[in-house]
């Protein structure tokens, strides 16, 4: 039998900012995104990206959880709406993440709850946020 190993996906992002204007972000796979900062500007600001990363990871992880439970065929749609509350004191940060899951399909409430909890345990982003990751920073010219 052939040894099938998934090729690792390149990860990471680079943001570039000129003296004026807004950041332009490029992913390791060449995806591109322009960042906005105005309150009424459509698009993503840095906090939106944090919430987007968590919400996307949670829905993908919920699908994995439902598959592992053998009930994915009963799920029709998974939504994770993520917002946050910034801390009122100390360093600028999100103190509370508010997550609203919607798991549609032929499922009872107990099963929906199990999927949501499993998703939080599977999701790399939620696990990272809950932990205390280290930062390794270098400065170049």
Automatic annotation (TrEMBL):
Signal peptide: none annotated. Coiled coil: none annotated. It holds the Pfam family OsmC. SUPFAM superfamilies: OsmC-like. This is Organic hydroperoxide resistance protein-like 1. It comes from Rhizobium favelukesii. The lineage of its organism: Bacteria, Pseudomonadati, Pseudomonadota, Alphaproteobacteria, Hyphomicrobiales.
